[in-house]
Amino acid sequence: MQPPSVRLGHVSLRVRELDRSRTFYGNLFGFEELDSGSTAGCARLGLKDPDGPPADAVIVLTRGLPAGAELLGVDHFGFEVRTAQDVDRVYSQARAMHAQATQPRVHEGQWQTFIFDPDGYKVGVFTTDANRPSAPSRFATSERGAHAAHGEG
If phi over 0 gives left and psi between -120 and 50 gives alpha, with beta otherwise, what is residue 84? Predict the structure, then answer.
């Protein structure tokens, strides 16, 4: 029996500061608030593709993670972009926002970077574009500690 056709419905993240996370995902990836009357302490953000359905990707942000609490249950989630230049552009923008990020590189056959959001969630940005660089980049020395702390070698 064939499995049903599915797509990721949403990713739900517990965050410390709702506005900070809303701004991060809006500015870096273009997410927009889906419900103007969101439930108190919660925001539904969507990524809209002009050629696709109303919300191609949804992130639900819920306030309520107490200071000092460990983040459990989410290793990372990823956004696929069209080109290696898009990966590089998102990386540069994340660094300009003072977010921790891995230098773009080839990993598991994809050109990608990992960016850490304000609450420490790991967000992958990758492409399977055939025109991606073929040799992995080296991490900048100043970033090695951040990568090791997040299991990135």
Answer: alpha
